[in-house]
Amino acid sequence: MDFKTMYEQKKTTAEEAVKAVRDGDWVDYGWSCGVPVALDAAMAKRLPELTGVNFRGGILMWQPEIFKIENAKDHMTWNSWHMSGIERKAIAQGFSYYAPIRYSELPRYYRDSKTPSRVAMFQVAPMDEHGFFNFGPNASHMAALCERAEIIIVEVNKNMPRCLGGFEESIHINDVAMIVEGENPEIGCMGSVPATEIDQKVAKYIVDEIPDGACLQLGIGGMPNAVGSLIAESDLKDLGVHTEMYVDAFVDIAKAGKITGKNKRIDKGRQVYAFGAGTQKLYDYLNENPECMSAPVDYTNDIRQISALDNFMSINNAVDIDLFGQVNAESAGIKHISGAGGQLDFVLGAYLSNGGKSFICMSSTFTQKDGTVKSRIRPTLAEGSIVTDTRANIHYFVTEYGIVNLKGLSSWQKAESLISVAHPDFRDELIAEAEKMKIWRQSNKRG
């Protein structure tokens, strides 16, 4: 049977497709901009008839229709691998929960799971002549979840970029149970956060540490984007890319002629990523681009792959840090913000790289809703805060007041270094707390 005939036989409506979901099912919504639209709308109409349906997904870029049904918590749970602002708000409604992961291990979680998703539904690019539906910029863990799902329903979107790769970037029609042709909505965009003056100061410290020929990983947020913008304007050359998330900043760097990947020892000349999220500029750049390599996250975030790349530069944000050097990038106390993601993988992998460096960056302070200014460098993390990177793992730490290398330092040296890049208004207070904690020496300079 030819693929076009098979396609017509498997084609159905969203309303018919979601009838496959039963009480108590685990249902996977895919990832980021691959979350279904037509199928989600149909699922929201069916869900009030069901109980105990457990959805999986992550990094939502718009609010799913299933979130909007009356008394959602009586019918469903949403289990997120990495939370966006939309998912954080749903926590208060009693049906949204974070599933703690080390992102690099996610494909294995699916393959080894005792409760794999019975139904998987997600957006894909149109079928190619060989019968494959491309996952778009969402290879991540999609192949692994499809291996274990009983029923796979794809929602075809003509606007989904076709992202080329090395492996596990597509699913074949033979493995698909049903095909739904949606209304081809625009791909969900994640706008770049404008860089502040503080972001730019932090970026300057980091860019000064990057050599020609380095391989880059950028996290999400204003500071990594500021670093990307500064790199695009710099004299750096022959850079490579090996990253978890492909962001708009990489497009700017590439179009500025800074990326060749010629010094990469693996995947030479390729920009490797697990998923991409940004503006339409990013999706247009990734579409059919043979220079860019869409790959599963257990490859992109594997410490062995990261460390095989010389001069690997990992640049990530965090929420706060304590004087022991413990980094929290996930919560504000018990209030959940995002997730572990792949930050620790890249912190560890970059340090193992020949000439590699990892940078954790943040503004020295933040302002509360009541206008009170607080230090992001704290004596100890707030009760309930999550330790994303342990005190043994951090390498470089950067604020607008400077950059410090914390590797190999004794506890009093580490405290002194961190206080040296804290906001001046909080340094005396931090010194006093460090003295109480027995990690400050009288010989240390105050100021």
Write the layout of secondary structure elements.
Blueprint lengths: L2 H8 E2 L1 H4 L8 E3 L9 H9 L6 E5 L18 E5 L4 H7 L4 E3 L7 H7 L6 E6 L7 E3 L7 H7 L2 E6 L13 E3 L5 E4 L15 H11 L7 E4 L3 H12 L6 E7 L1 H8 L15 E6 L3 H7 L5 E3 L2 H4 L2 H5 L4 E6 L2 E3 L4 E2 L2 E2 L2 E2 L6 H10 L4 E5 L3 E3 L5 E3 L1 E2 L17 E4 L2 E4 L5 H10 L3 H13 L11
Parallel strand pairs: 1-10, 2-3, 2-6, 3-4, 4-5, 6-8, 8-10, 11-12, 11-15, 12-13, 13-14, 15-20, 16-23, 20-24
Antiparallel strand pairs: 7-9, 16-17, 18-19, 21-22, 24-25
CATH superfamily membership of the largest domain: Acetyl-CoA hydrolase/transferase C-terminal domain
Q: Describe the biggest sheet?
A: 8 strands, parallel
Strand content: 15-25%
Annotated CATH topology of the largest domain: Glutaconate Coenzyme A-transferase
CATH class of the largest domain: Alpha Beta
Please mark out the parts with pLDDT under 50 across 5 or more consecutive residues, or reply none.
none
Number of separate domains: 2
How far is the N terminus from the C terminus? 77 Å
Estimate the global geometry from the Cα principal axes.
globular
| Helicity, as a percent range | 25-40%
Oligomer: single chain
CATH architecture of the largest domain: 3-Layer(aba) Sandwich
